[in-house]
């Protein structure tokens, strides 16, 4: 691990940002400067002070406390969406890769159709039918990103299945299941790690956008997207309110993107000299 | 693979995607708990009145019959009338499209025009500070949510400096071109910024790839400078991934347009869609989603055709 970190700026910066995010989450269960929902009319639009480190919103609710607690919704949605996307996507991708040629074509077609379907439209449909909730946001994001995961997994798995060591395993009489377990899965590990971090970034962005549009987790639970939506009305009064939740979102998304890039660098030595 | 066979295959994929996705959307929206007739007449309605209304709305028939009915009308450009407002859905979408379509097109063009030179610049100087800074900027651009960019941009340009309107669109639409373009400026810029950041990464890695090719070395050996050689051989090679990614990004782009419309209060398809979702005007939601997904599928079909025509390798891998 230490060796992997050395000189890998993406991985180091990314890990720090991810660590900050998880510290916020842990902190939200232990301590917040104020009750995030506590309404104190006297502090309406309070600026930065020793009482409110990042100021307060129209109702006088403490911004820092709301941001700390808001990490829960963000990370909960991301964790659930990544679970759905990886479980569905990886099993579909591997199934397609090992399926017979005749079955492959229609399955690849299905994945292609799913790929072209926009995630947020799915969330909008689900919200129209069931009413907006954390559950509709999670299902929409998870299902929509699963197609991309399936696509990448299938392509990577093809490459592995075409290798000599899989041919040798076949010759030794290994079953398909054994080949998947002993050869395909271990070699997919790096690609899966990179995809999972990409899915987390996408989910956090999607969740904040849905919350902003009022299609995510309903109030009163604080969420970064909804805080930004609320700040928009008062942008003439207190523009600072539109800054903090945005920074929080960028730290999470950038963190996971950088970790993904860093991991890619570790597993693909050809990238190490360039900085991509 | 023959270009005709390739085109026919892509056409088949395009049509089947349309049918499958519209069927899925249709059935999802019909699985709604409670029914329309009840919602319209209230809980005190007599069973007879309910049955008559259900018959009038055609919702007493089987799902497949209803879907077939909707699809055959939709193919003739008739998406029905809004259950709440009674307005013609097709006409309303067409009217709102005069805002959304120019927004998406202008933003895509701007994103392509900015991302290719910037990506090539970042590639040329990729071990120097300014090159690294350029690609760090694109990393940052990808991580910033569109609506936040919009909020910040309107804070600076509309609130602090008051040079451009923070939102809205003239009543008369494009008949007042001056005001219309002014109200479009910030939304287009916001949308292009996010897209450009994504496209720039692809332009950059395509150019880095070109720099290591033999033909590039040959061009350099004939006496061209790095920039001259890139102008001759790099631009096209950077275009191919950028165009194909733009095609794949169409879905994201339209969704971001919905968000941007809401940030800047632009009366486009996106704003209408959100209102209809809140009003549970399901037939209209269905119509809007059918139109937007058709556009997404159509653009990706076109992009594939163009790429297949330009690059024989694309035809092979299809």
Automatic annotation (TrEMBL), chain A:
GO terms for cellular component: plasma membrane
Entry's localization field: Cell membrane
GO biological process: transmembrane transport
Entry-linked CDD domains: TM_PBP2 (cd06261)
Keyword field contains Transmembrane helix: yes
One Pfam family from the record: BPD_transp_1
TM region(s), chain numbering: 12-31, 75-99, 111-144, 235-259
Major localisation: membrane
InterPro entries, A to Z: BP-dependent_transpt_permease, MetI-like, MetI-like_sf
Domain ABC transmembrane type-1: 71-260
Keyword annotations from UniProtKB, A to Z: Cell membrane, Membrane, Transmembrane, Transmembrane helix, Transport
Protein's membrane topology: Multi-pass membrane protein
The protein's name: Unannotated protein
Source species: freshwater metagenome
């Amino acid at each position: 691990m230490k060796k992997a970190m050395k000189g890998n700026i993406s991985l180091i910066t990314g890990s720090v940002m991810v660590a900050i995010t998880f510290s916020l989450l842990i902190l939200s269960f232990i301590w917040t400067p104020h009750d995030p929902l506590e309404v104190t009319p006297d502090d309406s639009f309070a600026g930065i002070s020793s009482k409110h480190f990042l100021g307060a919103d129209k109702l006088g609710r403490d911004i820092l406390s709301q941001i700390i607690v808001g990490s829960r919704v963000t990370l909960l949605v991301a964790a659930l969406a990544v679970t759905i996307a990886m479980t569905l996507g990886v099993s579909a991708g591997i199934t397609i890769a090992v399926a017979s040629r005749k079955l492959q074509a229609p399955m690849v077609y299905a994945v292609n159709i799913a790929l072209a379907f926009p995630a947020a439209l799915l969330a909008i449909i689900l919200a129209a039918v069931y009413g907006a909730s954390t559950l509709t946001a999670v299902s929409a994001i998870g299902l929509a990103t699963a197609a991309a995961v399936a696509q990448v997994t299938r392509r990577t798995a093809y490459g592995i299945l075409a290798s000599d060591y899989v041919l040798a395993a076949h010759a030794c009489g290994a079953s398909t299941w054994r080949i998947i377990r002993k050869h395909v899965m271990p070699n997919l590990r790096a690609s899966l790690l990179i995809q999972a971090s990409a899915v987390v970034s996408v989910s956090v962005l999607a969740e904040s956008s849905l919350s902003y549009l009022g299609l995510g987790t309903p109030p009163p639970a604080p969420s970064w997207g909804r805080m930004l939506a609320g700040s928009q009305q008062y942008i003439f009064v207190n523009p600072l309110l539109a800054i903090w939740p945005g920074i929080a979102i960028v730290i999470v998304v950038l963190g996971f993107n950088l970790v993904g890039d860093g991991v890619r660098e570790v597993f693909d030595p050809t990238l190490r000299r360039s900085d991509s | 693979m023959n270009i005709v066979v390739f085109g026919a295959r892509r056409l088949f994929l395009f049509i089947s995607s349309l049918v499958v996705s519209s069927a899925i959307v249709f059935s999802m929206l019909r699985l709604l708990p409670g029914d329309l007739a009840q919602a319209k007449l209230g809980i005190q309605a007599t069973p007879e009145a309910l049955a008559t209304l259900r018959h009038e709305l055609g919702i007493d028939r089987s799902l497949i019959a209803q879907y077939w009915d909707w699809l055959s009308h939709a193919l003739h450009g008739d998406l029905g009338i809004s259950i709440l407002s009674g307005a013609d859905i097709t006409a309303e979408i067409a009217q709102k499209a005069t805002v959304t379509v120019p927004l998406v097109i202008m933003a895509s063009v701007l994103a392509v025009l900015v991302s290719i030179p910037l990506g090539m610049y970042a590639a040329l100087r990729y071990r120097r500070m300014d090159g690294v800074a350029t690609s760090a900027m694109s990393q940052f651009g990808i991580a910033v949510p569109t609506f936040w960019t919009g909020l910040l941009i309107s804070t600076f340009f509309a609130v602090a400096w008051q040079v451009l309107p923070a939102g809205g669109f003239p009543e008369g639409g494009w008949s007042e071109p001056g005001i219309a373009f002014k109200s479009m400026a910030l939304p287009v810029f916001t949308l292009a910024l996010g897209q450009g950041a994504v496209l720039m990464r692809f332009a950059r890695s395509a150019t880095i790839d070109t720099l290591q090719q033999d033909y590039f070395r040959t061009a350099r050996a004939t006496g061209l400078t790095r920039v001259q050689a890139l102008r001759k051989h790099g631009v096209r090679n950077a275009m191919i991934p950028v165009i194909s990614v733009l095609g794949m990004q169409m879905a994201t782009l339209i969704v971001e347009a919905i968000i941007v419309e809401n940030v800047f209060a632009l009366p486009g398809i996106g704003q209408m869609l959100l209102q209809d979702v809140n009003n549970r005007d399901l037939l209209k939601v269905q119509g809007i989603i059918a139109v937007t997904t058709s556009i997404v599928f159509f653009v990706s079909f076109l992009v594939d055709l163009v790429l297949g025509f330009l690059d024989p390798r694309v035809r092979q891998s299809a």
